[in-house]
Amino acid sequence: MNWTRQRLADVAEVIRGVSFDNSEVRDSQAEDTLPILRAGNIQDSLDIENDLVWVPRRRISEEQMMRKGDIAIAMSSGSIAIVGKTARLDHDWSGSVGAFCAIIRPKPAVLDNFLDFYLRGPQFTSWRQTTGIGLNIKNLRSLSLRRFQFPFRLFPSSAASLKFSIRLTHLGRNALKLTRLQNGYCPRCSIRCLETL
């Protein structure tokens, strides 16, 4: 089975984040409100516990409700290191992303963890850091994101797809561990591990 180059728009939807008035924002949950993620919630994983804002449920369309496997992306930020950063939602959760973010929703035949892995890799990182426009605030244009091309492969069976998905998940975890080790950070003991090597 050969790999091909596909545009992001061919394998995923790009869904804009939720717009709302500042007067509607709450710092904690209230009746008929849902949480909104912001660019700062997009880290090594998607932080759905901290620094949330809550907005009226009526502001969020069904399409904008995040689903398991969706990938949040920061579309606008004052930092070139943040704009274009992504993280995948790996379990069910009721909420969405704010207007300075977007949701990448892989189509059913697409492995969400493959797309997530690629969007965290060096090629996409280089692309997003050179594509973000603006003097003070950096922005990714939705059209540019949809046109971004990357290697893609359909699998002949669900078993082959699952096998690849498992390998990719292990590879992603090991890459994250390596990055933390290179930075000298140990999440278990919060010390500089490399100083003891």
pLDDT below 50 for ≥5 consecutive residues: which ranges?
Answer: 185-197
Helix content: 25-40%
CATH architecture of the largest domain: Alpha-Beta Complex
| Main structural class | alpha+beta
Task: Write down the CATH topology of the largest domain.
Answer: Adenine-n6-DNA-methyltransferase TaqI, Chain A, domain 2
The secondary-structure element order is EHEEEEEEEEHHEHEH
Give the strand content: 15-25%
**Total helical elements:** 5
Average of per-residue pLDDT values? 81
Distance between the termini: 43 Å
Number of strands: 11
CATH superfamily of the largest domain: DNA methylase specificity domains
> How many domain regions?
2
How is the biggest beta sheet arranged?
4 strands, antiparallel
Radius of gyration, in Å, reads 18 Å
- The rough form would be described as globular
Strand order of the largest sheet: 2-9-5-7
What does this protein look like?
It is a single chain. The protein is an alpha+beta fold. It has two domains: 150 residues, Adenine-n6-DNA-methyltransferase TaqI, Chain A, domain 2 (Alpha-Beta Complex); 43 residues, no CATH class. It contains five helices and eleven strands. It has a four-stranded antiparallel β-sheet. Strands 4-3-8 form a three-stranded mixed β-sheet, with no helix packed on it. The C terminus is likely disordered.
